[in-house]
Amino acid sequence: MPELMRLDAGHAPAVLAFELANRTYFAASVPDRGDDFFDRFTDRFDALLAEQEAGICAFHVLVAEDGSVLGRFNLMDIEDHTAHLGYRVARHVAGQGVATATVRDLCRLAASRHALRTLRAAAAHENAASQRVLTNAGFVPVGPAAPTDLGGKRGTWYERDLAPGPF
Fold first, then answer.
1. Nearest to residue 62, comparing CAs of 8, 121, 127, 5?
2. Beta strand 58-63 with 3-6: parallel, antiparallel or unpaired?
3. Mean pLDDT, consecutive 10-residue segments, the chain of 167 residues?
4. What CA–CA distance (Å, rounded) separates 51 from 39?
5. How confident is the model at residue 167, as a pLDDT?
6. In sequence order, which residues have a C-beta less than 8 Å from that of residue 88 and are 6 or more positions away?
7. Terminal-to-terminal C-alpha distance of the chain
8. What pLDDT does 164 receive?
């Protein structure tokens, strides 16, 4: 059974493999990370760990039993009990409810471990799968997302209140 884990240095090879294996798939719905991301992966990964250590972000990976990464689920720009949610799942598990279930798990962690009260996420109008994940995980649309929020695409901001209650 896959396990949602806090990102650590030991995950670097599996995260790189995940990003490389799914690069074309991701680029169909979100902006491509670009060659520089892969050329400087170690530096970028170390910077993420430093942001996490500083409490600015909390990065998570969904790890399969074989140690491969099935998805990345991130809480970014943590401030005033609010954070932005970002996520991506591997093509071979897309459409199986993995993203929705893991976003729900992350909502619980965000409230209990990080004392967050609100999560926000943006989804491009063309990204129907992400819109479904957010809606099915209890997020509601709260307004337009500008192209600067979504790598040049228009979309919608979604928000979820993490007040105590059923998840």
1. 5
2. antiparallel
3. 96 97 88 88 96 97 97 97 96 96 97 95 93 97 93 93 68
4. 20
5. 46
6. 22, 26, 30, 71, 72
7. 20
8. 62
Q: Which residues have C-beta within 8 Å of that of residue 38, sequence separation ≥ 6? A: 16, 19, 20
Rounded Cα–Cα distance for residues 91 and 24 (Å):
10
pTM, rounded to two decimals:
0.92
Task: Report the alpha-carbon distance of residue 38 to residue 25 in Å, rounded.
Answer: 16
Q: Are strands 82-89 and 118-124 parallel, antiparallel or unpaired?
A: parallel
Q: DSSP string covering the chain, please?
A: --EEEE--GGGHHHHHHHHHHTHHHHHTTS----HHHHHTHHHHHHHHHHHHHHTS-EEEEEE-TTS-EEEEEEEEEEETTEEEEEEEE-GGGTTTTHHHHHHHHHHHHHHHTT---EEEEEEETT-HHHHHHHHHTT-EEEEEE-TTTTTT--EEEEEEE--SS--
For residues 125 and 155, give the distance between their C-alpha atoms in angstroms, rounded to a whole number.
5
Query: Which residues are registered as beta bridge partners of 161?
Result: 118
CB 110 within 8 A of CB 77: no
**CA-derived radius of gyration, the chain:** 15
